[in-house]
Amino acid sequence: MSEVSFVMGEPTAALRGAVGSYAGYVERADSVLVRREMAGSRCVLIFGWGAPIDVVDARGPANGASGVASFTAGLADSYVETRTAGTASGIQLDLDPLVAARLLGRPLGELANHVVGVDQLDGAGLRELRQLPERLGAAGGWPERFALLDRALAGRLERSAPPDPRVDWFWRRLHEAHGDMAVESLAGEIGWSRRHLATVSRRELGLAPKTLVRILRFERARAQTSRAAVQGWAAVAADCGYYDQAHLIRDFRQFAGHTPAAPVNA
Length: 266
Description:
Elements: E1 2-9, E2 22-37, E3 43-50, E4 53-56, E5 65-68, E6 71-73, E7 80-95, H1 97-104, E8 115-117, H2 127-138, H3 142-158, H4 165-176, H5 183-190, H6 194-204, H7 209-222, H8 225-231, H9 233-239, H10 245-256
Antiparallel strand pairs: 1-2, 2-7, 3-6, 3-7, 4-5, 4-7, 6-8
Helix pairs in contact: 2-3, 7-10, 8-9
């Protein structure tokens, strides 16, 4: 049996547009609680205290993490499972990858398909982030916790350099189109070769352009579950740019670990 409660918070005005909502949570599980987390276009950053979490990647232990309450994950081209028992509390942020790179002080290529404990983050200026879980856990309530986050994140962004404008442009264009764009034409507009764009994309975002296209297209299809219940997944597949329904199903199996019609945490 498990029970979870959420408290949502909005970052200060100076952070809006760079950082999304704060999701504070308290979760109690009498036995091991298993959840499946799908691949997506956002990077997860969790500052937690209480019961630790195991993040299990089917590709091997080097991709996941064991016994972490606070961790971050780069973009991934597969799903993972989280396992926890007891009482866990924390705040989750789902970050744009270029913002995550600035906060963490490293290109996302270093975190692709990996989970890293916050206490293992090294580099200049990251001491405050490593200390945040303890400070958040000791705070007097959620408003105080969200205010602590505001100050820490704003400080990190102020001290970090903005991303390369060409990488930022590429990512925004791809994201706004939900992946429905030809990578070759984007490379031409930037003035790079396809090969150079792929190299930069892997280094700065963690994944190759065509993998990013597939993930964004998958997210668009996943958001149309209600429509699929009426019109069928074949219609959704056609609208989202898949060759056919079988093509959509293959991506769901890779990125979500199940078929479109299966329960999310089956």
